[in-house]
Design goal:
- With 241 residues, this protein is an alpha+beta fold.
- It folds into 2 domains: 9-72, Arc Repressor Mutant, subunit A (Orthogonal Bundle), CATH 1.10.10; 77-235, Chorismate lyase-like (Chorismate lyase, 3-Layer(aba) Sandwich), CATH 3.40.1410.10.
- Helix content is 27%, strand content 34%.
- The protein is built from 7 helices and 10 strands.
- The chain has a 6-stranded antiparallel beta sheet with strand order 4-5-6-9-8-7. Strands 1-2 form a two-stranded antiparallel sheet.
- β8 and β9 (218-228) form a beta hairpin.
- α2 (35-42) crosses α3 (46-59).
- The chain is elongated and about 70 Å long.
- The protein starts with 8 loop residues before the first helix and ends in a 6-residue tail after the last strand.
- The mean pLDDT is 93.
- Bound molecules: 2-acetamido-2-deoxy-6-O-phosphono-alpha-D-glucopyranose.
- 2-acetamido-2-deoxy-6-O-phosphono-alpha-D-glucopyranose binds at residues 86-88, 143, 145, 164-167, 208, 210, 221, 223, 225.
Length: 241
Amino acid sequence: MLKNGPVPRYYQLKEIIRQKVTSGQWNPGAPIPSERELCEQYGLSRMTARQSITELVNEGLLYREQGKGTFVSQPKITQQLIQLTGFTEDMQARSKRPGTQVLNHAMVAADAATAAALRIKPGQLLFKVQRLRLANGEPLAIETSLINFIGCEHLMDEDLGHESLYQLLEKKYGQPPLEADQELEARLAGEDEARWLKIAKGDAVLLIRRTTYTDRNQPLEFARSVYRGDKYRFYTRLNRK
Ligand code: 16G
């Protein structure tokens, strides 16, 4: 039974449910008890239980399925928007197995937008690789990277299905990614994106554009990545000066 007190009862129930999810007692994809069961167990009105659940649905911790009930959402990968990291590092930091499927790679001529980002002339040849990135075998993102440095054509011989691009650039090519500008944008998945990411066309995705710089602020990579909107959360700590 929840008590009346300074903390509203709907909030107490919210925190109980959150605790069950974060402790792993309730698993992703599993149904939570019905509103009626929660009311009985915690001595709450139907309206109070509904408010707790609705707020947790809005926060993304739970989701409702018409006529079926309320379920625990799959946890999202939280990525801090502070440090420059690559996909392999991000996954390893979360004890997930990174995976890569190279969709295509080629030497291509820079278009106007890429040339502007990399501060080169349009038409200059660059290394381009498009990769599907996976975590524990599950598709998370489609990344298209355009790389420019003297000798970048040697990347054509690398096995980017098994090696980290950032580690290769740093360790083998002497081009460490040191800083980046990054933009995030909400979008809906197109047909091809949906197929690769195993979502429905029109589902929410995050489009991320990143320009990565190496030593002396020299642009190295222009990347355009499409992340599954239901799997990723970006976090940043803000300071008021
Ligand atoms: C990140 C970068 C991508 C980079 C990749 C390298 C974003 C939006 N993109 O996913 O630009 O090419 O890491 O990963 O964060 P790798 O070292 O595992 O190949």
